[in-house]
């Protein structure tokens, strides 16, 4: 990192400093995140429909014109403690437009009111509901950011253990997969990350774990004994975020287990940078375009060839 920082990141850093997102209590953080989402206009280019999946509220975000037949179950970030359908509608819409697939976001139960494994149970139940409606697992992906990225891997492991047909792909944006907060990245880039801190993650990990050990596999899937048999995983992460090592270690573990994995570390980028406007961060649009291409390749209906399309 040279002396001249990324102008968009500088704008975001000063905005975050006054946003209340780094507040001491989970209740205050929820309020700050909800306030940021409250004024958001309806995202363009998609149709949004409310639904229920796995006993939780959900939203179908479908590209105008109907999409290509693929379905992405999207698990939002927020440390398992904050975040909602409102906070991730815009990101879900960008992914739907980019991939041409329907994106269904899930309002899974949050800690501390509902500690581990409530989030995993809800995601597994939601996926089961999708399959029960006749959606083909081969045309399905699971994706998520931050805690939702960790939850994506935990959900895959839970489905694998149950013998449920797995989705065809998974996407993890800045995944949180190690709730011990013991990686070197906290010391290397902790002062550069404007969004996430070890103290903040420790607070949320304690709330989510509810007394379970921090290495519990479905909370910290980095510690799974074996990740074999999972579908291809795309991992996108920023260079200056404390979860960088979570992402790179997850990629290494997946590769070692024989899973097809693509990892991109974006220079100068911060935690879940894809959630910020492309006008500020052109990299956000580029990452979302790459994720969209991955998803449409894996789960979109082929546009050529014989047979009804």
Describe this structure in words.
The chain is of the alpha/beta class and 309 residues long. The protein is 38% helix and 16% strand. It has a single domain, classed as Rossmann fold (3-Layer(aba) Sandwich), CATH 3.40.50.1820. It has nine helices and eight strands. Strands 1-2-4-3-5-6-7-8 form an eight-stranded mixed β-sheet, with helices on both faces. Strand 7, helix 8 and strand 8 form a beta-alpha-beta unit. Helix 3 (85-99) crosses helix 9 (282-299) and helix 4 packs across helix 5. The radius of gyration is 18 Å and the shape is globular.
Q: Which H/E pattern describes the elements? A: HHEEEHEHEHEHHEHEH
CATH homology superfamily: Alpha/Beta hydrolase fold, catalytic domain
Question: How would you sum up the global shape?
Answer: globular
Record the strand order, biggest sheet.
1-2-4-3-5-6-7-8
Report the sheet with the most strands, covering strand number, pairing sense and barrel closure.
8 strands, mixed
Architecture per CATH nomenclature, i.e. the level-2 architecture: 3-Layer(aba) Sandwich
Overall number of structural domains: 1
CATH topology: Rossmann fold
Strand percentage lies at: 15-25%
Which parts are unreliable, with pLDDT below 50 for 5 consecutive residues or more? 304-309
The separation of the N and C termini measures: 49 Å
């Amino acid at each position: 990192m040279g002396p001249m920082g990324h102008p968009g990141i500088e704008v975001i850093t000063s905005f975050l400093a006054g946003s209340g997102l780094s507040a001491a209590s989970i209740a205050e953080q929820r309020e700050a995140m909800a306030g940021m989402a409250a004024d958001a206009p309806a995202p363009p280019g998609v149709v949004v429909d409310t639904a229920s999946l796995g006993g939780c509220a959900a939203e179908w975000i479908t590209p105008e014109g109907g999409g290509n037949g693929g379905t992405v179950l999207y698990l939002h970030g927020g440390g398992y403690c904050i975040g909602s359908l409102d906070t991730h509608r815009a990101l879900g819409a960008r992914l739907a437009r980019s991939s041409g697939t329907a994106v269904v976001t899930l309002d899974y139960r949050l800690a501390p009111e509902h500690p581990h494994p409530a989030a995993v149970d809800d995601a597994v139940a939601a996926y089961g509901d999708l399959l029960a409606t006749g959606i083909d697992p081969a045309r399905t992906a699971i994706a998520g950011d931050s805690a939702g990225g960790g939850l994506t891997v935990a959900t895959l492991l839970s489905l694998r253990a149950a013998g449920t047909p797995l989705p065809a792909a998974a996407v993890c944006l800045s995944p949180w997969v190690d709730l011990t907060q013991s990686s070197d990245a906290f010391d290397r880039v902790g002062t550069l990350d404007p969004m996430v801190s070890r103290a903040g993650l420790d607070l949320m990990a304690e709330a989510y774990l509810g007394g379970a050990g921090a290495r519990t596999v479905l909370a910290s899937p980095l510690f799974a004994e074996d990740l074999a048999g999972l579908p291809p995983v795309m991992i996108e992460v920023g260079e200056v975020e404390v979860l960088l090592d979570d992402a790179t270690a997850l990629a290494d573990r997946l590769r070692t287990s024989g899973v097809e994995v693509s990892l991109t570390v974006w220079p100068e980028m911060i935690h879940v940078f894809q959630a910020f406007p492309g006008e500020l961060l052109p990299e956000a649009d580029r990452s979302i375009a790459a994720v969209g291409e991955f998803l449409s390749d894996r789960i979109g209906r082929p546009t050529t060839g014989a047979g009804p399309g």
